[in-house]
Amino acid sequence: MRAALVLAGGRSTRFGDRDKAVADLDGTPMIRRVVDRLAPVVDEVVINCRDDQVDAIDDAFSDAPFDPEFAIDRDPDEGPMAGIARGLEAVSAAYAVVVACDMPFVDPRVVQYLFERAEGADAAIPRPDEWFQTTQAVYRTEAMAPACRRALDRGDDRIVAPLADLDEVVVDADEIEAVGSLETFENVNTPEEFETAKARIQAE
Ligand SMILES: Nc1nc2c(ncn2[C@@H]2O[C@H](COP(=O)(O)OP(=O)(O)OP(=O)(O)O)[C@@H](O)[C@H]2O)c(=O)[nH]1
Ligand SMILES: [Mg+2]
């Protein structure tokens, strides 16, 4: 069993006064596009967000063939890694791909490959350049959730903090490009980046 955990509990401060998760990307709310791209390679979808976001996000799935499950932050604004912990605690599958809601070009072929690479390990984490792509990575649910909790308990909310407790596989750019596109990691933070993404989708 495989799950997708989509992270949406941020405040979109660089985006402006709207929640980027549900911003209209050429007719489709961004989070819906992300989930639609992941759906073919997973059995379960969990969305992590704040309580005040649920109605708008649920609306984005009103005509979807399934109902996503919500894992609502108990305390908001504790950072993305706290959101991963909360979300993974709601996941039933043994492995979950964690994807930020602002990655509209997430490539299902890459995600499928990450699931394969994670088998037998605690995680498969892409590192296409000097940075770990922790918000587009596959984790073993029962390893990552407690690793996040331990890091939070010791006051370390850095998104890479749980990795210290994991036996992870690191996936480089060549491996990603062999199965899909590095565009999978593009993320939308500003209105300008959103317009660029929209133009690219219109040209698809
Ligand atoms: N649960 C939870 N998720 C978060 C939090 N902060 C960010 N995220 C999520 O983590 C992912 C990456 O974060 P950013 O790209 O910085 O998004 P953001 O925090 O909404 O945007 P900025 O305010 O512009 O930084 C996004 O999917 C966010 O929804 C948080 O405090 N709690
Ligand atoms: Mg981002």
TrEMBL record:
Major localisation: cytoplasm
One Gene Ontology biological process: Mo-molybdopterin cofactor biosynthetic process
Subcellular localization(s) per the UniProt record: Cytoplasm
GO molecular function, one term: GTP binding
UniProt-listed Enzyme Commission number(s): 2.7.7.77
Residue runs in coiled coils: none
InterPro entries found in the cross-reference section: MobA-like_NTP_Trfase (IPR025877), Molybde_CF_guanTrfase (IPR013482), Nucleotide-diphossugar_trans (IPR029044)
Needed co-factor(s): Mg(2+)
Residues bound to Mg(2+): D102
GO cellular component: cytoplasm
Top-level taxon of origin: Archaea
Top EC class of this enzyme: transferase
Domain MobA-like NTP transferase: 4-161
Reactions accelerated catalytically: Mo-molybdopterin + GTP + H(+) = Mo-molybdopterin guanine dinucleotide + diphosphate
UniProt KW keywords: Cytoplasm, GTP-binding, Magnesium, Metal-binding, Molybdenum cofactor biosynthesis, Nucleotide-binding, Nucleotidyltransferase, Transferase
Binding annotation for GTP: L7, A8, G9, K20, N48, D73, D102
PANTHER family named among the record's database cross-references: MOLYBDENUM COFACTOR GUANYLYLTRANSFERASE
Domain remark from Swiss-Prot or TrEMBL: The N-terminal domain determines nucleotide recognition and specific binding, while the C-terminal domain determines the specific binding to the target protein.
Protein function: Transfers a GMP moiety from GTP to Mo-molybdopterin (Mo-MPT) cofactor (Moco or molybdenum cofactor) to form Mo-molybdopterin guanine dinucleotide (Mo-MGD) cofactor.
Family statement drawn from the similarity comment of this UniProt entry: Belongs to the MobA family.
Name of this chain's protein: Probable molybdenum cofactor guanylyltransferase
Organism: Halobellus litoreus
Organism classification: Archaea, Methanobacteriati, Methanobacteriota, Stenosarchaea group, Halobacteria
